[in-house]
């Protein structure tokens, strides 16, 4: 039993190790891109910034307390009465009996508090809007990562197909070389004309040109992959797994697509902003408090006359005041302006709702198309091996007939071209099946649908 079990275990471990290695290139590319690609990093930073905005919105419950200190040098003429809140600055000192041009120092320091403990629902809706905006940023981050991974995976599959085509062309060049050497031998023996030798030599040159062109295509894909991971490529990118095994039909997933999550979060955000705006006509309840000290270089004698003893006394705080109160402010004449703003937010919310429905409709249609695409690709991939086997058999038979002098150069070249086309079509059919599976994973928002079959 031990002698039988041990080889089975070893074979299983070796197969698992080889299979895991075939997953390494694409997994490594995706990991590198996630760490390095600027677009992904930018989306992550925006998500974190949105999270900080939620904290900032919640902290509006904290009272505003401002500390200030000032010093001034001014005349001390003063009159009681009202000034408008700008353009004219009040000066320190009590009312003066005469107009004086003398200047003295003054100072002040204090604390001013303003607190809105209750906002009649405005703050709550703004916090919920900020939280929904964070959900939108999170969904956008997921969508950015998903789209980049899909693009990178698709480009990697394109690269693998180009590499497979290069392999087919190299095999075709070897056949062209054999054909040329065969033609030289047959021409020497007089079985074929010497023209065939030149024509086969031309075919060998064409095969070399196709290989050079395909190598250039590979270099272009490598440049794109390097850009998508924002780093140098690993040494070995080859992976023949995709051209040996076909994917299976995948089941449905319950995961919500990041694009739908984004549209839903945008709709929720606009709804909360609309609710907050609709409450803008409600009163503003404020708790105001102050504590301050004031210094002035102007003094008042027993007869009510002002005089200056020492101008520097203005730097000494000698009057202290404090107070606290509640203010309730109600906008009375702005209701029409507020109503227009409500309508704007309401229409924006309706637009976001329709955008959500549009996204859902598109995703449902794309899922249906993706499923049918995979079914068709698998059906085609089941037929291409037959074409390849027939083309190979036909080429080998025609090559033997050419050696016997029974057919012409043209027939052999046509058979060789058909063999190349059939082999490329075979590998392309496998590539299209994996591309279809990647499409299914993309429209379902879950790349594990793709990776679980590797």
TrEMBL record:
GO molecular function annotation? efflux transmembrane transporter activity; porin activity
Key word Transmembrane present in the record? yes
Report TM segments: none
Give the main localization category.
membrane
Top-level taxon of origin: Bacteria
Write down what this protein is called.
Outer membrane protein
Q: What Gene Ontology cellular-component terms does the record carry? A: cell outer membrane; efflux pump complex
**Coiled coil stretches, renumbered:** 337-366
| Similarity comment: family membership | Belongs to the outer membrane factor (OMF) (TC 1.B.17) family.
Q: Which UniProt keywords apply?
A: Cell outer membrane, Coiled coil, Membrane, Transmembrane, Transmembrane beta strand, Transport
Where found in the cell?
Cell outer membrane
Annotated Pfam families: OEP
């Amino acid at each position: 039993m031990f002698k039988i079990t041990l080889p089975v275990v070893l074979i299983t471990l070796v197969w698992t190790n080889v299979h895991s290695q075939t997953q390494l290139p694409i997994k490594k590319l995706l990991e590198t891109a996630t760490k390095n690609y600027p677009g992904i990093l930018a989306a992550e930073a925006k998500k974190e910034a949105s999270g900080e905005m939620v904290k900032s919105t919640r902290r509006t419950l904290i009272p505003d307390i401002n500390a200030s200190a000032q010093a001034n040098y001014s005349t001390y003429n003063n009159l009681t009465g009202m000034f408008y809140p700008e353009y004219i600055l009040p000066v320190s000192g009590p009312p003066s009996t005469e107009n004086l041009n003398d200047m003295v120092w003054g100072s002040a320091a204090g604390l001013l508090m303003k607190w809105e403990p209750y906002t009649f629902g405005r703050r709550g809706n703004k916090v919920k809007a900020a939280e929904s905006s964070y959900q939108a940023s999170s969904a956008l981050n997921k969508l950015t990562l998903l789209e980049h991974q899909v693009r990178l995976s698709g480009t990697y599959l394109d690269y693998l197909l180009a590499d497979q085509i290069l392999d087919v062309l190299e095999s075709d060049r070897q056949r062209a070389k054999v054909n040329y050497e065969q033609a030289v031998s047959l021409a020497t023996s007089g079985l074929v004309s010497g023209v065939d030798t030149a024509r086969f030599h031309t075919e060998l040159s064409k095969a070399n040109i196709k290989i050079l062109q395909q190598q250039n295509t590979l270099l272009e894909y490598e440049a794109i992959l390097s850009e998508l991971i924002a780093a140098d490529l690993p040494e070995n990118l080859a992976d023949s797994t995709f051209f040996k095994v076909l994917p299976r039909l995948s089941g449905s997933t319950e995961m919500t697509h990041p694009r739908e999550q984004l549209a839903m979060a945008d709709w929720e955000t606009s709804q909360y902003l609309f609710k907050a705006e609709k409450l803008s006509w409600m009163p503003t309840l404020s708790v105001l408090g102050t504590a301050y000290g004031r210094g002035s270089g102007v003094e008042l004698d027993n007869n009510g006359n002002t005089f200056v003893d020492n101008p520097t006394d203005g730097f000494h705080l000698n009057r202290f005041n404090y107070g606290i109160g509640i203010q309730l402010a109600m906008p009375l004449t702005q209701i029409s302006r507020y109503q227009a703003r409500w309508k704007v937010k309401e229409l924006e919310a309706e637009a976001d709702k329709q955008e959500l429905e549009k996204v859902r409709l598109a995703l449902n249609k794309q899922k249906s198309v993706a499923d049918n695409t995979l079914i068709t690709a698998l059906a085609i991939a089941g037929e291409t091996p037959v074409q390849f086997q027939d083309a190979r058999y036909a080429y080998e038979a025609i090559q033997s007939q050419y050696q016997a002098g029974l057919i012409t150069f043209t027939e052999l070249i046509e058979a060789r071209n058909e063999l190349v086309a059939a082999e490329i079509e075979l590998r392309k059919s496998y590539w299209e099946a994996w591309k279809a599976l990647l499409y299914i994973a993309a429209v379902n928002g879950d790349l594990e649908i793709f990776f679980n079959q590797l």
